Amino acid sequence: MDFLYRSIHMEQKKWETATQMTIEEDMNVPDVKGDCITILLKDAALHVGETRVGRDQVVIKGCLQHQILYETGEGGRLEQLTGEIPFEEILNVNGATPGDLALAKGIIEDFKVSMINTRKIAIQSVVMLRVCMHQLMEEEWTDDVVNCGADMEKRCETKDVLQLCQKKSDVFRVKEEVELPGGYPAMQNILWKHVSLGNLETRPMDGKVSLKGELNCYFIYMAQGVSQTVKMLTKKVPFHGLIECSGCQNDMIVSVMPMLNQCTVEIKPDFDGEDRVLYLEAALDLMIRIYSEEKLALLQDIYSTSQEVVPEEKIVHAPILHIGGEGKCKVKQTHRLKEGTPRALQILHTSGTVFPDRENWENGILHLMGSVQVQVLYLTGEEEMPYAVTECIVPYSLEMEGNMGDKAEMMWEKPVIFVEPRVEQMDASLVDSEEMELKGIVSFAVLVLNCEKQKCVGGAQCNPLDTVKFAALPGMVVCFADKETPLWEFGKRYYMPMEEMKRLNNMTADTLKAGESMLLVKGSKL
Question: How do residues 362-385 score in pLDDT, each as one tens digit?
Answer without folding.
Answer: 888 999 999 999 999 999 988 778
